[in-house]
Amino acid sequence: MDLNAEETRFEKEGEPQASLQSGERLGNYRIVRLLGRGGMGEVFLAEQVALKQQYALKVLPAEAASNPGFVRRFEEEAQILAKLDHPNIVRVHYAGSDRGRYYLAMEHAGGGSLEDELQARGGRLPPAEVRDILLRVLKGLAYAHEGDASEKREAVMHRDLKPANILRTAGGEIKISDFGLARVVGEEFV
Fold first, then answer.
1. For residues 104 and 101, what is the distance between their CA atoms, to the nearest angstrom?
2. What CA–CA distances, in Å, run from 174 to 61, 76, 89, 105, 129?
3. How far apart are CA 172 and CA 67, in angstroms?
4. Residue 3 has pLDDT above 70, yes or no
5. Diameter of the chain by CA atoms?
6. Could you report how far apart the first and last alpha carbons of the chain are, in Å?
7. What's residue 143's pLDDT?
8. Residue 151 DSSP one-character state
């Protein structure tokens, strides 16, 4: 995925400027650039200042951050998602807030989304590659859906699986991202 092209696409479509600019800080993270934007906020490439490591920061929109019920749910979901430790799931490392802005620091996959890949390859992938991607996605989903009482890890359902939420690492591994609409299995589904 060409991140500069992605940023240019946002500008061409007339979307508003990112809420954070390159060089700004959010907690212990320095913003590098906007990676994407969706209904649940913006995702930025950021560098953890002390460790000099890159993360994807998902920043909640201001209107969500001003709703105490939403903030409570965000914090609860962050705790649940941080317990998901599987090679095919993007790892959540930290949840925090700074100046009323709530964010998740997640593993930065670095290789783009399956949606980007499909667009670049004319919407088609070889059957063997599709099978490999699906097997990895299913392994990650099975892990999330199972839960584990001994690890005090609740079963989690994704609820928004789509090519944009399936990422590749720079090394080609498959990672499921954006559990933002996730629900703990057993909760009432609305």
1. 10
2. 27, 26, 8, 19, 11
3. 38
4. no
5. 50
6. 34
7. 95
8. G
Q: Are 49 and 136 in contact (CB under 8 A)?
A: no
Pick the more confident residue, 189 or 137. 137
> For 145, what's the count of Cα atoms within 13 Å in the CB-facing half-sphere?
10
Residue 29 has a CB neighbour count (10 Å cut-off) of 24
Residues involved in catalysis: 160
At residue 133, the 3 state secondary structure works out as: helix
pLDDT at 69: 85
| 100: helix, strand or coil | coil
Residue 23 CB partners (closer than 8 Å, separation 6+): 30, 31
CA atoms within 13 A on the CB side of 144: 28
Q: Give, as one character, the DSSP assignment of residue 15.
A: P
Confidence (pLDDT) at 75: 84
pLDDT (average), residues 152-181: 88
Structure tokens at 36: 């994407």
Buried b (16+ CB within 10 A) or exposed e, 64-79: bbeeeeebeebeebbe
- Asked if the model's pLDDT at residue 17 lies above 80, the reply is yes
Spatial contact of 46 and 105, defined as CB atoms under 8 Å apart: yes
Question: Which pair of structure tokens corresponds to residue 156?
Answer: 């989690």
Q: What SS3 class is residue 60?
A: coil
